[in-house]
Write a structure and sequence with these properties.
Helices cover 39% and strands 16% of the residues. The chain has 17 helices and 16 strands.
């Protein structure tokens, strides 16, 4: 791409100052004289460009390898983002609404802040600079936290990266530093600094970096130390990407600095056991004649194995406490107050009931049942599930407390022998019933020879 830039002064000793074809910043000469070609450097993104200069003319032609920017599409509304999430994520209406509004506000904040930055103003028509609102999602496993992040990454126009917090450690120890999060976002934005500085970072498994107990007298390098290192990233600071984290050797000439002020952070975690902390805060225990016995501690119920109805009832009780989560509960769990203060919105994801799990099996795009039906169709066999078999699968997932993640495991165990028999056989149809799920009985097979015998008898 060739851009024609103009020299502001005709003096031979003056510097060429013009706009960068990548980020729009100022270009400065790095060598005086009228020799050709001449190298220029951007003062903002620190990229180098080759200029072909005509001595008898004031026109400067800058050669750049960056493609021309395509016209940006209109910003999706919260309703459009919500409807897109509904195609892939079942249930969780409130978290989807919060994420849709947060992403839409992220787009608007970028438009306002970047326009103020280009005009070098701190306020436009009385409107101040908009600050970002980070989001913290918490809920039991299998409720769709990671799926929400993966679905959002597919529909967004801004770069997004998903980072696993379990591999993060404090600086100077074995493991990944917090700077690797921004390095992954830079790779996702194809090393475009401007795109990287307006991206979205999803911090998964953030509960795994909770603070260790005070009884353990050792340096907490993978818990509290990581939380303290993430504070400046969440608030906004200049992060220097180390050369070892940059895979391209062409970009290792100078350290890359990324401003995280406009980067939106979304954190999620299971926070297993936080319901007990909330219950201890809300329910005051008492001793003596006026105390009320706890119905869940009865000895008659503890001797029998819990059914899916008992587990579903307990999950509803946990959801009731999870709706009332507060900052002091997260602090008791092991999250430092400074980290919670930088996550203004806390969104609980509730456990999925039977109807939601049955819908997850059949309704979404790329559903699990559709995948297995297509897998059997490659061998010329039809896979059929009865309605009561789908309910039995959902009940088993609730009993195991694995949520939507346990559905595939159940189907793999049920269909293992069938997937072994069908290839190369004359089986043309397999019907899975409720007895197949509950009693581990064989599914109903329909063979090609049976149809031929029926035709001959007819």
């Amino acid at each position: 791409m060739y851009l024609y830039l103009f020299q502001l002064s005709s003096d031979s000793g003056s510097k060429l100052v013009s706009s960068c074809p990548k980020c729009g910043g100022h270009l400065n000469n790095i060598r005086d004289g009228a020799s050709s070609p001449r190298f220029v450097k951007c003062s903002q993104c620190c990229y180098f460009f080759v200029c072909d200069i005509d001595i008898n003319s004031k026109d400067v032609r800058v050669e750049s390898n960056f493609p021309e920017q395509e016209p940006t599409e209109s910003t999706p509304t919260p309703k459009e983002i919500f409807s897109y999430l509904n195609e892939y994520v079942i249930g969780q209406e409130y978290p989807k609404k919060v994420l849709s509004v947060g992403i839409y506000n992220h787009y608007k904040r970028l438009e306002v802040n970047l326009s103020q930055k280009n005009r070098n103003e701190t306020m436009i028509s009385g409107v101040p600079t908009l600050d970002k609102t980070n989001v913290l999602m918490l809920g039991p496993t299998g409720t769709g936290k990671t799926l929400l992040a993966q679905t959002i990454a597919r529909c967004l126009q801004v770069p997004m990266t998903i980072c696993d917090c379990t591999s993060l450690t404090q600086a100077g120890y074995v493991g990944e530093d917090v700077e690797s999060i921004i390095a992954k976002l830079l790779i996702a934005s194809e090393f475009n600094l401007e795109k990287c500085q307006r991206g979205i970072v999803f911090l998964d498994e953030v509960d795994k970096i909770s603070m260790a107990t005070k009884e353990v007298h050792m340096r907490d390098v993978s818990g509290e130390g990581v939380q303290q290192a993430l504070l400046k990233l969440l608030e906004g600071t200049l992060v220097t990407i180390p050369e070892r984290l940059v895979p391209s050797r062409k970009l290792r000439s100078e350290p890359i600095q990324v401003d995280t002020t406009n980067i939106l952070f979304i954190a999620s975690g299971a926070f297993s056991g936080i319901e007990k902390i909330i219950r201890n805060r809300k329910v005051k225990k008492s001793l003596g004649f006026g105390s009320v016995p706890n119905s869940s501690d009865s000895s008659g119920e503890s001797n029998r194995s819990p059914t899916h109805l008992d587990v579903e009832k307990q999950l509803k009780v946990n959801d009731k406490y999870l709706r009332d989560v507060e900052a002091e509960d997260l602090i008791s769990y092991g999250i430092i107050p400074e980290f919670i203060g930088r996550m203004p919105i806390t969104v609980p994801l509730l456990a999925l009931d039977r109807d939601a799990l049955v819908t997850i099996l059949t309704k979404p795009k790329n559903s699990i049942i559709a995948q297995y039906k297509y897998l059997f169709s490659l061998d010329g066999c039809d896979l059929i599930f009865t309605d009561d078999s789908l309910e039995a699968i959902a009940d088993l997932a609730i009993k195991r407390q694995t949520g939507a993640r346990g559905l595939r495991s159940i189907l793999e165990n049920v269909l293992m022998d069938t997937m072994y028999l069908v290839p190369g056989s004359d089986i043309i149809s397999v019907t899975v019933t409720r007895e197949t799920i509950k009693n581990s009985s064989k599914p109903l097979y329909k063979r090609r020879t049976d149809l031929q015998k029926t035709a001959v008898n007819y």
